[in-house]
Amino acid sequence: MVTEYTDCAELMRLITEQKIKPAAIKRYLSKQGIIFTSINAQTFAEDIYTIFLGGQEMTNITQMIVSDGNYEKSTLINAKLRKHLDDVDILDFFADKFNIYRSSHFQGYVIEQPIKSDSELIVNMSYKRKLPGKNKLIQEETRYVRIAIRKKSTSDVAIDIRQPSSFDAQKALELLQAMTDSSEESEVDLAHVNLDLLTDKNKVNFYDQLSAYSFDNWKLKTVVGITVKKASTSEDDIEEDTSENDESLSGTLAGISQAVLNGSGLRSNEFVQSSIQQGYYISSMKYRYLCTQEAGEFVVAINSKGENLRVDIEKSFSDDDGNLYIQPFSKGLQDEIIKAFQDASNSIFYSLIEEQKKATANAILAP
Q1: How remote is the C-alpha of 146 from its chain's centroid?
Q2: Are residues 142 and 216 in the same domain?
């Protein structure tokens, strides 16, 4: 979404200061039929200064700035009709609800007109967040959240929340919870991708199966991070940072990567075994993938946050003459990656839940 115009003088400064890599802009402009041969950043910046760029082109280019804010972050939940009703379209249910809350200015949220297709509903919303300090000019900032509701079947949808931070995601969740409040006799229930519903064994199996999942355009290169969290009976303590042990030792990560890549699984790794024995469970994994269709790599983080699952692009790399450099992928490619990992996570999670239900039923029937 274009919110303001940035002239070429500002773009020239960003290139000169290496805030945007010249190679990234060259690649983008070459797809528009504009070819540059300049190697020096200053010379390239002076050359591009003469090109008239429209608002959309400028938006696409500024999204290439190497900044955490240019990486997509998402929260995944699901929703389903309480009863299968032929005359109820679940996307229409949410479209109507968003329009109702849009007109009522729910908790000060600014909700834009929902955009609906046969298989998806898109809603953009914003709200004002107060900031610390006494300066009246910067006492608050506008935060933007995008919600995409995608049909999985006639009665089920996946809800993809894109947000700058987990605090912003919570705002969207509050709105969705109000829409589906059982006390209001709502026709729809939210269904969380809550890894706490899995057995200790299946919590490990979830990440094992995700590591082994085959994607069409990406291939797992290595594991670059793992977080384990101490199991707690107190819900108030589950989000405390003190309960997390981040394992960053290269030797341990190398061992975990080897266990994943050779198919022996996470449980075969000494660190994972030791953590499980001490009452810890895996709450986050970071994977680095190779792009098989074009030169590049990316790091994706899969996090269990309370009763919801987050899929975040942590970092991405582009190739320039055989050398990788940090470069945010286009929003379109990041969106494709996140959707694919959300779909994989959903499939694996519900498959494990079904296995647990069958195991419980068999245990009850056993003599």
Answers
A1: 12
A2: no
Query: What does the mean pLDDT of the chain come to?
Result: 83
Q: For 38-42, what is the mean pLDDT?
A: 76
Residues of the chain above pLDDT 90, percent: 40
Answer for the pair 160, 76: CB distance below 8 angstroms, yes or no: yes
Residues whose CB falls within 8 Å of the CB of residue 19, separated by 6 or more in sequence, listed in order? 65, 66
Q: Distances from the Cα of 132 to the Cαs of 123, 127, 138, 167, in angstroms?
A: 29, 16, 9, 16
Residue 262 in tokens: 């050779």
Look up residue 68 and give its DSSP letter. Answer: G
- Shared domain for 208 and 357, answered yes or no, is yes
The per-residue pLDDT for 116 is 95
Nearest CA-CA partner of 350 in 22, 36, 80 = 80
Could you tell me the sign of the dihedral formed by the alpha carbons of 260, 264, 265, 268, in that order? negative
pLDDT of residue 238: 27
Q: Which helix (H) or strand (E) holds 57?
A: helix 55-62
Of residues 46 and 97, the one with the higher pLDDT is 97
pLDDT higher than 90, residue 287: yes
Q: Which pLDDT does position 248 carry in this prediction?
A: 46
Number of domains in the chain: 3
Strand-strand pairing, 120-130 and 110-111: antiparallel
CA distance 231 to 166: 21
Helices (runs of H) and strands (runs of E) counted in the chain: 10, 13
268 and 165 in a single domain? The answer is: no
The whole domain housing 253 covers 197-365
Which range scores top for mean pLDDT: 21-25, 29-33, 343-347, 363-367? 343-347
Q: Helix, strand, coil: what percent of the chain each, to 5?
A: 40, 30, 30
One domain, residues 145 and 248? no
Q: Which residue has the tokens 């994989």?
A: 344
